[in-house]
Amino acid sequence: VMMTCPAHQLEDFLELLSARGCIRSDISSCYDFKTTEDLCRYRDPEEVALRTGLFTTVFPAVRRSSQISKYALAAIKVKDASTQYFQVKHELLMLCSVQGNPSIIGYHGTFKSNHPVAGEMYHLATDWYELDVSWLVSERGSVHESKATEIVTDVIQALQHLESCGICHRDVKPENVWLTDTWTAVLVEFGSAAYVADKARLAEVVGSPGYMPPETLLGRCAGIPGDVFAAGIVLFFMLAGQTPFGEAEASSLRLIETDDELDCGLISDCSEDCQSLVKHMTRSRLQARFTPKDLLASDIVTSTAAAKAKSNAASEPIVVKERGRSFGLHGE
């Protein structure tokens, strides 16, 4: 097929293949970036990285064809080659399956490369945004109710989209909710995602301390309801500047001992509607916990979504001066 593709359409064709999950080997011709060479040159990868995790280091990249710099390349660093391949294949499958929603991170392809020192590596190309909710709260202490509700409304819309795709995220937390320069919340990091029909994978204990739902800690399947619970804790975190449980992994089990309802004492200055939203999202009993559809039909989420749609055209963008230092937060 490639041999018969006109030269002026080749790049578009390759982009289509990337979006469908094909693994490419032409990363250097597509992106200008600092990845494998800098990992070998710098003692501390964070000198050039946007973020560094246990298995992944994320680097900024510039798309050569457009010279647009809002891209991230996630370098997957798993030593075992077969494990690495299946991990990459799983994540790109999840990303490809959930595209098409503004609150889901945009995916642009997976690339395989070989480096004389770093060896075989995979890079996942996605959109990149400067801010995430964790950094926002660390800089501000807490987020105003109106803005926090806007952010969690976007996350709920993302979860409804995932539900329609038959997929759950399983690691919703502040670090995985990025913010665009117009305040749209974007859900990222799909390495832990799974199909809701995959009961064996859903039974695994996956997630982050302080955000895991009780059913996960009890060894039961946690799907979209678990994501809703975690999003509710993210909302609480934005409002209070801390989680309701601290960092203990078993902390959400306290809800079972306290008659199912989260203590909202730390956010008592918020409106009753907002506190009610947090409680509906964090019920320990699955039958009582709201679904994304329920949440999107609630008065506070409906009015928030309508107000945001009306004000988007007039709101000023977030202005970031330098990561980790000062930045302007317009529109709050």
Write the CATH homologous superfamily of the largest domain: Transferase(Phosphotransferase) domain 1
DSSP, total strands: 14
- Report the portion of residues in β strands: 15-25%
The overall average pLDDT, rounded, is 81
According to CATH, what is the class of the largest domain? Mainly Alpha
Instruction: Spell the H/E element sequence.
Output: HEHEHEEEHEEEHHEEEEHHHHHHHEE
Rg estimate, integer Å:
20 Å
For the record, the count of structural domains works out to 2
Shape: globular
**What does the largest sheet look like?**
7 strands, mixed
Please, could you describe this protein's structure?
This is Protein kinase domain-containing protein. Residues 44-301 form the Protein kinase domain. InterPro entries: Kinase-like_dom_sf, Prot_kinase_dom. GO terms for molecular function: ATP binding; protein kinase activity. This protein has 332 residues and is α+β, with helices and mostly antiparallel strands. It folds into two domains: 27-127, Phosphorylase Kinase, domain 1, CATH 3.30.200; 131-328, Transferase(Phosphotransferase), domain 1, CATH 1.10.510.10. Helices cover 37% and strands 17% of the residues. The protein is built from 13 helices and 14 strands. The longest helix has 20 residues, at 145-164. It starts with 9 loop residues before the first helix and ends with a strand.
